[in-house]
Amino acid sequence: MGGVHSCMVASLYPEPVACSPMLTPRSAAVAFCQGALQQAWEPLSLTSAAITPTVNIPKDLCLSGRTLPPQTSPPSTDQSMIRLDSLLGDRLALGTLGHEAPEQPFYPEDFESEAGVLWRWYLLESKAQAQKQLQQVLERYTDVKKFPRPKRPDAAVFVAARDDAYVSPDSVLEVHRYWEGSEMRWVPGGHVSSFLFQTEAFCGAIKDSVRRVAQGAKQLKVGSQMSSTFRRLTEAQPA
């Protein structure tokens, strides 16, 4: 979720900073719960089941992930579920989604982590409920529109892929509209192919953003009218 994180940094940094969000959704929930990755839940759960110790664990203990002393409440589901997106990313990065186990050892005791708690909870509950809970947590903490606008939104250059199955074009436009004065650029391809074959466009966006900050363009006030560039690009957005 590098694009989302870069938006967060630009939003919270106290000084003007160049920012070029690439293939960036409005929040992590868009990618994990609405895009193509939502199809990864089933193979990931099967992989998890294959390496989970075959023992009977009471449901309340599964939610806690550890032996509880008397009168101790398990951690909330919301607190635990925020770790699921990192586990998903790790599994996908290792290229083991729905296939053989990673070369890096993955021991049963790893399930005592919060991420492991989530998987055991997922196996006990429905897929739909698990996705709903994850979406609520990610929307709460990673929605870029809940962060303040950056000091220099006019210096930001967004780049999105027209055929991105992981990050919908509409989601990118939400952030673009929120950052009034920012520029929106489109490249052909999907989430991976655009990264592989459109590097020149990505590098150009970064250079332009840095140049605009260096030039010290006038900072836009919140509520200002959309620029002609914004209107032209949004009118040409993919259907």
Automatic annotation (TrEMBL):
Any matching Pfam family: ABHD18
Which InterPro entries does the record associate with it? AB_hydrolase_fold, ABHD18
Source organism superkingdom: Eukaryota
PANTHER family for the chain: PROTEIN ABHD18
Protein name per UniProt: Uncharacterized protein
